């Protein structure tokens, strides 16, 4: 996992450098396109893996009066959205997906 992250960072840095060296508009290399696609896929993968839902939800629910309920809902939301808003309540605009999830009763699902 660590090695993978290192590889990813190296790849992204490489991409930034090669892009910086290219004159503007000179993006006519299929090799470059492949790298772009691969980097964005890896980046997405990495970003999604990065969040530790147990940790993020423990933090989110620390002040909740119903910790187990809060934690369970939060984990579901986190697993689905890969995001938990900062703080113990509110701040949901940081995670639009998290903010949008509803229960079957059309209540906001995520704590
Ligand atoms: C890209 O390169 C190919 C061959 O090298 C050329 O035929 C094509 O016109 C180029 N496309 C652009 C947008 O410069
Ligand atoms: C998530 O965080 C908790 C608490 O810090 C830690 O014990 C656990 O190993 C972490 N899990 C992952 C997958 O990093
Ligand atoms: C919202 O997030 C900020 C940090 O981004 C934090 O300082 C603040 O306490 C949070 N709000 C609540 C209600 O937890």
Short description:
The chain is mainly alpha-helical. 62% of the residues lie in helices and 0% in strands.
Beta-strand proportion: under 5%
Helices, by number, come to 5
How would the global form be characterised? elongated
Helix content: 55-70%
Segments where pLDDT lies below 50 for 5+ residues?
none
Features:
111 residues; mainly alpha; 0% strand; binds 2-acetamido-2-deoxy-beta-D-glucopyranose
Structure description:
The structure is a single chain. The protein is mainly α and 111 residues long. The protein has a domain at 53-100. The protein has 5 helices and no strands. The protein has helices spanning 2-21, 30-50, 53-60, 67-81, 96-100. It is elongated and about 55 Å long. The protein binds 2-acetamido-2-deoxy-beta-D-glucopyranose (3 copies). Residues 86-91 line the site of one 2-acetamido-2-deoxy-beta-D-glucopyranose.
Topology:
Blueprint: H1 2-21, H2 30-50, H3 53-60, H4 67-81, H5 96-100
Helix pairs in contact: 1-2, 3-4
């Amino acid at each position: 996992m660590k090695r993978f992250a290192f590889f990813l960072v190296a790849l992204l840095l490489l991409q930034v450098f090669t892009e910086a060296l290219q004159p503007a508009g000179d993006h006519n290399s299929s090799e470059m396109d492949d790298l772009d696609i691969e980097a964005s896929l890896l980046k997405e993968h990495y970003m999604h893996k990065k969040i530790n839902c147990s940790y993020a939800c423990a933090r989110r629910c620390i002040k909740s009066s119903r910790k187990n309920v809060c934690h369970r809902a939060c984990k579901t939301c986190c697993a689905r959205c890969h995001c938990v808003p900062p703080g113990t309540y509110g701040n949901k605009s940081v995670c639009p997906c998290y903010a949008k999830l509803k229960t079957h009763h059309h209540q906001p699902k995520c704590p």
